[in-house]
């Protein structure tokens, strides 16, 4: 819920303005003021994964990890936020646009569509977060990151970082080559022991069949590329939590850890 305008000055701290390079700028309008207030009031749980500022100072692009995303009352919420900041250097005003997304590649792609250079928003080679577990994971991430803006339509997603570390995303693939099986599930598992993550893709002809797989988890994901190995079936208890629906009832889970 947006903060009243009279309270916004209290949450625009110097550190927040400096972090987003907005010192000396005012919001373009009340909506942008309210939207930016979210990033100020939640600065303690929002951590940048990758950032790019254009040389002319007019735009900034961020992928932020939200450590509190899956707390109640929002179980399953995506833990990543793509943020685009634009500045009017003459008028000294700014505008913000953001999108909450479940996978790093989707967040990067959202920013690329808005004008960020592809190489500028890639994770640096020496980043401290989890790395792709295998070549197929790296290949799928590159496919998502560099795909055409209209190719993947995100229909639903669910992130679980309470008992396991998974992110499941249901999309419609509008690429002509996928027309026979346009409904895709991208499922990411994170292993903090090996400090890696594994991404796999499944394909279905209709959305109901994809949804049924999410409920049953019988067998591996049906691969659009049979030569590639797919993720192992998810145990029933995990499937219930990661089925893109509400998690089963029970006590409030422990505080989520840092996914990526």
Break the fold down into its secondary structure elements and pairings.
Layout: H1 14-19, E1 26-27, H2 30-41, E2 46-53, E3 59-66, E4 80-88, E5 93-101, H3 104-113, E6 131-132, H4 135-146, E7 152-160, E8 166-173, E9 183-191, E10 196-204, H5 207-216, H6 236-241
Parallel strand pairs: 1-5, 6-10
Antiparallel strand pairs: 2-3, 3-4, 4-5, 7-8, 8-9, 9-10
If you had to describe this structure to a student in words, what would you say it looks like?
The chain has a five-stranded mixed sheet with strand order 1-5-4-3-2. Strands 6-10-9-8-7 form a five-stranded mixed sheet. It contains six helices and ten strands. 22% of the residues lie in helices and 28% in strands. The chain is globular. Mean pLDDT is 82; it is low at 1-9, 226-243 and 245-260. With 260 residues, it is of the alpha+beta class.
How do you describe this structure in short?
The protein is α+β, with helices and mostly antiparallel strands and 260 residues long.
Structure class: alpha+beta
Strand adjacency order, main sheet: 1-5-4-3-2
Helical proportion?
10-25%
Strand content: 25-35%
Q: Count the beta strands.
A: 10
* SSE string: HEHEEEEHEHEEEEHH
Q: How many DSSP helices?
A: 6
Unreliable residue stretches: 1-9, 226-243, 245-260
How would you sum up the global shape? Answer: globular
Mean of residue pLDDT values: 82
Main attributes?
single chain, 260 residues, alpha+beta, 5-stranded mixed beta sheet, disordered N terminus, disordered C terminus
């Amino acid at each position: 819920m947006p903060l009243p305008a009279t309270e916004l000055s209290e949450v625009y701290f110097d550190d927040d303005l400096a972090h987003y390079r907005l010192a000396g700028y005012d919001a373009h309008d009340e909506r942008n003021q309210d939207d930016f207030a979210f990033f100020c009031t939640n600065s303690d749980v929002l951590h940048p994964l990758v950032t790019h500022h254009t040389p002319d100072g007019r735009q900034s692009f961020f992928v932020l990890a939200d450590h509190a995303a899956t707390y109640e009352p929002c179980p399953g919420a995506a833990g990543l936020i793509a943020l685009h900041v634009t500045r009017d250097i003459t008028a000294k005003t700014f505008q913000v646009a953001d999108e909450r997304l479940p996978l790093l590649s989707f967040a990067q792609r959202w920013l690329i569509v808005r004008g960020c250079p592809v190489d500028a928003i890639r994770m640096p080679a020496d980043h401290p977060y989890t790395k792709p577990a295998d070549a197929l994971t790296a290949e799928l991430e590159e496919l998502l990151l560099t795909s055409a803006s209209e190719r993947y339509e995100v229909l639903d997603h669910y992130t679980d970082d309470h008992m396991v570390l998974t992110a499941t995303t249901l999309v419609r693939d509008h690429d002509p080559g996928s027309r026979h099986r346009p409904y895709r599930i991208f499922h990411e598992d994170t292993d903090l022991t090996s400090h890696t993550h594994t991404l796999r893709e499944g394909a279905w002809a209709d959305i109901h069949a994809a949804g049924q797989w999410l409920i049953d988890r019988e067998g591996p994901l049906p691969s659009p590329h049979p030569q590639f190995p797919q993720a192992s079936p998810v145990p029933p208890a995990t499937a219930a939590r990661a089925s893109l629906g509400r998690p089963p009832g029970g006590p409030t889970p422990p505080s989520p850890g840092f996914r990526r």
